Structures are given as C-alpha cells and as structure tokens.
Amino acid sequence: MASYSPTAGRASNTEDMNIVLGVAGGIAAYKAAHLLRLFTEAGHTVRVIPTESALHFVGEATWAALSGQPVATDVWANVHEVPHVDIGRRAQLLVIAPATANTLARAAHGLADDLLTNTLLTARCPVLIAPAMHTEMWEHPATQANVATLRARGVVVLDPAVGRLTGVDTGKGRLPEPEEIAWTALRLAERGADQADLTGHHVVVTAGGGREALDPVRFLGNHSSGRQGYALARTAVARGARVTLIAANTVLPDPAGVELVRVSSTQELHAATVRAAYEADAIVMAAAPADFRPVKQADHKIKKEVDGSAPVIELAQNPDILAQLVRSRIDGQVIVGFAAETGDDEGSILEHARAKLVRKGCDLLVVNDVSGGGVFGERHNAATILSRTGVVRQVPYGTKEALADVIWDLTVDTWSANDNN
Ligand code: CTP
Known about the structure:
Elements: E1 18-23, H1 29-41, E2 45-50, H2 54-57, H3 60-67, H4 83-90, E3 93-99, H5 101-108, H6 115-122, E4 127-131, H7 135-139, H8 141-152, E5 156-157, E6 161-164, E7 170-174, H9 178-191, E8 202-208, E9 212-213, E10 219-220, H10 227-238, E11 242-248, E12 258-263, H11 266-277, E13 282-285, E14 292-294, E15 315-317, H12 321-327, E16 334-341, H13 349-360, E17 364-369, E18 380-387, E19 392-399, H14 400-420
Parallel strand pairs: 1-2, 1-3, 3-4, 4-5, 8-11, 8-13, 11-12, 13-16, 16-17
Antiparallel strand pairs: 6-7, 9-10, 14-15, 17-18, 18-19
Helix pairs in contact: 1-3, 1-9, 4-6, 5-8, 9-10, 10-14
This protein binds cytidine-5'-triphosphate (CTP).
C-alpha cells in the first residue's frame, strides 16, 4: 500500500494548476470570492467546494460564475464520476479559506461527511488552511490540538490575523487578506516536496527602521522599508514556520499567518526582540535599528529661534540588539545578522563584513553592497552570505523572497550542523 505523503501531488508546472478552494461557513466566506478571483486571474483552474453552511453566507451561483466550474457540497451529485476522487487526485494545491473550528476538527479527525472532507482525504498535493473564527474558539484547546495534528501531517495552517471580527469584536481570529493567502499558497505549491521544512520551528524576524523621536512631530530615522524582513516572514510561513514579525514603522501589507508586533523606536524594537527570542529557534535581524537616539525628547514642538540659531541635539548610543541576542542565545538557536556595507580605505566590503561577523558573533551575516545606493525599498536584491565557519554563498540579483529562501535553507543547515556537534 502506498504510504501517505502530502507532497506526492507536487505541482511541476505552477503556471496553470488545478486548485481546489474549500470554503467553510464563516462570515469571512465573502473574502474567498476575492481569493478565487486572484487564483483564476493568475491563470489557474479553480474548483470551489463550499460546505453546506458556507452557502448560507455566499451562494452557489457566485462560486460557479466566478470559477466557471460546477459547484457541489456533497458527494451525491454526478455520482458516476466519483467526484471526490477525481477532484482530489487532480488537485495540485488545496486551500481551505476560511476554515471554521468545525472544518478544522473534521479535517484533523479524517471525517468524510461532505465533498470537501472527502476530497481532502483523496488529495496528495500541498494543503494550506486559513482558519477564521472568534478568538475564544481559536484559542480553545480542542481547536489548538486539531491545528497541531494537521501541522504535524504537513498541512500549512495559517495563524489568523488580529483585527475586527464579526460584529463589534476585535481580536485574533480574522482571515488574513486574500492577496497574502494567495501568495503563500502559490509559494507552497511551487516549493512542492520541500514545502514545510520549517514546521515545528518558531522564527523571529525584525523588519523596518527605528525612529527616534526629537519632539512630537520630528524623528531621526533611516530608509529601511522592511521589504526584506517581510519577505523573510512570508517565505517562512509558506515553509510551515510559526513566525513572529517585529515591524518598525513599515507600511507594507501584513503577511498572512504571522504574529505581528509593531514597534517604533529602537528601544521598543530591542525589548520586543529580546522578549520573543526566549522561545525562538532562529532570529533574523533584518531591521535597521538606529544606532543613536536623542538624549532628550521635547514634549512640545521645538520652535525656531528668532536669532536664527539652531538647536544642538545630544545623542546617546542605542543598545546593539544583535550583540545582546548573541550573548543571551539559547541552546541551538540560530542568529542571523544583516550588514549594509561599502568598501573604504580601511578595507573591502567583505573584509568589513568578516570583521562584523566576528564582532557580533552571529551564525550568518547577510551582506549587501550599498556602494551604489539601491537595496532600500527595492523589491530585488543581491547578497553575499557569510557563516562563522567561513562558508560564503553568493546570492545573485533576484527577488527579496528568493534571498529569504536561501537564508532559511542555510538556517536549516545550521540547525542540522548544531545537532551533529
Ligand atoms: N543591529 C542591532 N542593533 C543595533 C545596530 C545594528 O541589532 N543597534 C543589527 C542590525 O539589525 C544588523 C546588524 O546588527 O543585523 C548589523 O547592522 P549594522 O548597522 O551594519 O551594524 P553596526 O553595529 O551599526 O555597525 P556599523 O558601525 O558598521 O554601522
């Protein structure tokens, strides 16, 4: 008998895939119509399988019209075609969004009482589930146990976002934005067999730039957009990791499935990172903390002097977060730093970078050449990655997500090397 493998149906061509979109009965079902649109507009064939309760929120006609495919909720339509076997076998990606507590429970326990759960059992492709429900239902030990079971089987289950729920409530339980769910799901399908190699790991990623307030309206800051950190966070989610993203002053869309902690100053970034580091398997310091902060922050707007004199701002040095993380590192934890370097009279980019790696004591240092400007705010990047053992990896110019995946590959290698020592 063939053993169960959630990756056997790997999509070899991710340009035109057969996608199954399961929709369960929650208020966020209306967002699945947009998700469906994103998949079909990207050229994929999507078969929507709503649950009976989902049709209370969005009717069959909407799913059929938007997908151009027949829609059924149970296995009793077109029985001669044995639909659940046919749809499941042909699926190259199966997404359930939103998934209710009930659908999670049925999936975790292998129940097969409608077309969606039957299809889930016949499919051998990557599976991504995006739950959405009230906070209490998400946090209930029964739901958490079901999520753990599914994750252990190689299913990528996204943590819900925090925000407005049905009615006036807010909390954890909101469906992430469809664009981000679509990106994560397609990435999962693209990676295929290696899809969830960060499953069971908690990674902390920092992103963006620290802002040091001078007064209520002014700050000292830097050009970091946070794009590289966000790329690290979303690629880690697509590889099954639990991700804490600590974001300083970013304006990018929230990646699906992350725990997002917003900070502004470098001291806030420091506190949030040290707190999250206690239970992290890897920390990637992609943020650009400010090295200095004003000693005093005026509690009113600093006014111009009539005599034309300018204020003198005294600066204090901020903590070196990376160096402190290395000092308080827990066993087996991998710590990754970034360095934006230019060469000068004292040394080349690589010489400066090697010295920084030794000074900071991190496992990997991702070095960007910023002599020609660029990098900040761009979607693409090239880098050299140094390791403590002297291994160098050149990553050619490509997307920040491609660089992120190389960083995660090297993180996985470092965990294995630590295990073997
Ligand atoms: N970093 C940090 N805390 C700081 C400054 C930097 O954790 N206060 C981290 C950055 O997130 C990055 C790495 O250290 O991962 C290197 O940052 P960089 O600015 O290149 O290092 P500095 O120590 O500030 O060195 P330099 O004197 O070259 O600016």
